[in-house]
DNA sequence: TTTTATTGATTGATGCGTCAATAAAAAATA
DNA sequence: TATTTTTTATTGACGCATCAATCAATAAAA
């Protein structure tokens, strides 16, 4: 009984299903049938809306990235000082919306897939650049540019590293601990060095 | 024309071929035929020696881990002070043998696979524990235990994070830069706090 | 003659992508 | 308004390719 205007609903459902399927399997080795089943439709419909599997995966990663970006922008809007901007970027990466097993597993899986797909690689590069730039938007108000660059690089690496170790269920046990660890690093690098 | 005593030779060749295949493809999505072909044998022979594909992959990861362990032990033997022990562990992770695209791609791919395979997960946990313990072997001589724990955790996360970002060909451009970044972190955390 | 090394051929399973068919809504036409 | 036509939504069934794993066969060494 076809209702009209189903396309956006199905697209959303399929992307959500893709995330949860990847999260459960822990890799991109999920079948179109599995994803479609979770979304409550046939695999043929998934192909109808997304063409090939790659495109569905790509759309899924883009969706995750877009969500992260929205959250980040909102958090940055609330930050009043450069120091708060840095903390805001870190906090978003470990917020309840982002730092959940499904999303972490997806990140990891997409990092691997990016080795094969240049489209996906480009997407993840954009994330890396944006993260760096967001961190710099706060750090340049506190440190000289060269120094800020290094701290941004280290902070980004810390975020990615803590994500991975979380995927292994090893290392830091929760988001709060992860944030404290990075904040501790930032404190030792930033205190007593405020620009005039 | 079967020569005897081929087993160890073939096993080694197949594991090396697996690493290079994974390194090139950037994921574990390599066929047994591809691997066997690189090793100069038939896929049937690969099955003959390793049984199933999982076992070959497992043996490959174990081999990579063993190599890392050997290198680390050698480096630690040369370290004279606690501070040098910490640097030694970091240096090995970014040595020419370890910080090459093939090995990095393999690490990343195996991290993902560990989500599915509990055997592999156990193996990677051992690595994580060992890394932590190796770092602690130096840090406990410099910092109080709780503090040492945090620094070890952060250092491990930094190493993993820099590995990932390297896989994306983004972030730090080379091993030297990566080492400097971590050493910079360690300096700010360790200087002026030597235990009596 | 038994063991070790080796492979070509085959099988069976899996999974992507296609296609024709069905049906409801919307648009066009009478 | 009643009808026909087109568009949108949806799926079951199927073809086709890929690959892991097996097996029987071959041949050199012990």
Could you characterize the architecture of this molecule?
The structure is a homodimer of 196-residue chains. By secondary structure, chain A is mainly α. Chain A is 75% helix and 0% strand. Chain A has nine helices and no strands. Chain A has helices at 7-25, 32-39, 43-50, 53-78, 82-93, 101-113, 118-139, 145-167, 175-190. The first copy, chain A, is elongated and about 60 Å long. Chain A starts with 6 loop residues before the first helix and ends in a 6-residue tail after the last helix. Chains A and B meet through helix 6, helix 7, helix 8 and helix 9 of A and helix 6, helix 7, helix 8 and helix 9 of B. Chain A binds a DNA duplex (30 and 30 nucleotides) through residues 1-7, 10, 31-33, 41-45, 47-48, 51-53.
Please describe the structure with a list of short key phrases separated by commas or semicolons:
homodimer; 196 residues; 9 helices; DNA-binding; transcription regulation (chains A, B); transcription (chains A, B); DNA-binding (chains A, B); DNA-bd_HTH_TetR-type_CS (chains A, B); repressor (chains A, B)
List strands and helices in order, with pairings.
The structure is a homodimer of 196-residue chains.
Chain A: H1 7-25, H2 32-39, H3 43-50, H4 53-78, H5 82-93, H6 101-113, H7 118-139, H8 145-167, H9 175-190
Chain A binds a DNA duplex (30 and 30 nucleotides) through helix 3.
Domain HTH tetR-type (chains A, B): 8-68
Protein name (chains A, B): HTH-type transcriptional regulator BetI
Keywords (chains A, B): DNA-binding, Repressor, Transcription, Transcription regulation
């Amino acid at each position: 009984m076809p209702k009209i205007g189903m396309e956006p609903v199905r697209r959303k459902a399929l992307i959500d299903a893709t995330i949860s399927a990847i999260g459960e399997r822990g890799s991109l080795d999920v079948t179109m049938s599995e994803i479609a089943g979770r979304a409550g439709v046939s695999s043929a419909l998934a192909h109808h809306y997304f063409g090939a599997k790659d495109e569905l995966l790509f759309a899924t990663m883009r969706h995750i990235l877009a969500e992260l970006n929205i959250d980040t922008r909102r958090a940055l809007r609330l930050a009043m000082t450069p120091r708060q901007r840095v903390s805001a970027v870190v906090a978003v990466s470990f917020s309840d919306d982002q730092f959940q097993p499904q999303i972490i597993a997806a990140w990891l899986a997409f990092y691997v897939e990016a080795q094969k797909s240049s489209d996906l690689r480009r997407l993840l590069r954009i994330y890396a650049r944006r993260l760096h730039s967001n961190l710099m938007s706060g750090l340049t108000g506190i440190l000289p540019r060269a120094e800020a660059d290094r701290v941004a690089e280290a902070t980004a690496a810390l975020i990615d590293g803590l994500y991975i170790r979380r995927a292994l269920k090893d290392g830091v046990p929760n988001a709060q601990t992860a944030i404290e660890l990075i904040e501790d690093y930032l404190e030792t690098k930033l205190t007593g060095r405020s620009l005039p």
